[in-house]
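Form P-L/3: holo structure prediction, ligand iron/sulfur cluster.
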Amino acid sequence: MKIGMTTSLPIEVIYASNNIPIDLNNILVSGDADKSVAYAEKKGFPRNICAWIKGLYSVALDSGIDELVGVVEGDCSNTHSLMSVLKSEGLRVSSFSFPYNRNREDLKAEIETFARHYQVAWEEVLKTKSALDRIRQKLIRLDELTYLENKVSGFENHLWLVSSSDFNGDYRNYERELDSFLEEAQSRKARNDSLRIAFLGVPPIITDIYQTFEDLGGRVVFNEVQRQFSMPYLERDIVDQYLRYTYPYDVEFRIQDILIELKKRRIDAVISYTQSFCHRQIDNILLKKYIDLPILVLEGDRPGVLDERTKLRIESFLEMLEG
Ligand code: SF4
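OUTPUT (holo model):
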């Protein structure tokens, strides 16, 4: 079966049950995202609801999935209503929760319930985790090629890490493609960009953000949430792995990881990206409070390229930093 997901979750369970995980966010941005959002609006989704949710609605109906797993705790409260609408249209839905309190027992129970739902033994889940961890180790190397050796662009880093949420539905093929990318990237000459940028927040729905930075002399060397999707801590235990995953929990926990990485990657400035109508915009209050670097807050709404006003803001920000 093809199992759609509204965000990252323990894909080890889905792969171990011989099903195919499909992160609908990745499908949305690789297709005509604007058309998907417009279709949802035509079906009654309000204008002032985040474009990701509207896009996911259309993609869930369009992508031939057999079942949708919605993450109903630790991601987005809009997912509840999205699932109800999709269920009423005949799609089979189930749910997964990351407990807000990061309680180990609660999370373990949740992953076990998830495994029971797909009738897969715990040993099989752990065996699959080992196979996925081998790829995650290679993604750490890709990340080093980005921030240590300066051979991988911010956009390439984003693409590989963001697609590790489901390994494009075929982790063996993903690993083969990653191997050949790493071989090619290692032989590149190091880049010589002047400004090192951190990109915090949800992956952008805007297509040319990374290119715009590079055209203006900056380069993203830290993709915060995309790196989280790649589960970079390589914890031996699957429960610990999803306990260290910062995205579903509170912003203070996210900030602890961010501060370590900003220092390690010698970051000059930070972009905090949020989506219009998203509750995560409130997190900017604490990000600005605890991060002692210049921060530019960007907001994306519809899919597509950057508008001229935002481009100008980025340009002025980078000019100010260079000055
Ligand atoms: S960007 Fe925010 S509002 Fe949109 S789906 Fe993600 S969490 Fe929900």
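COMMENT: The two ends are 55 Å apart (CA to CA).
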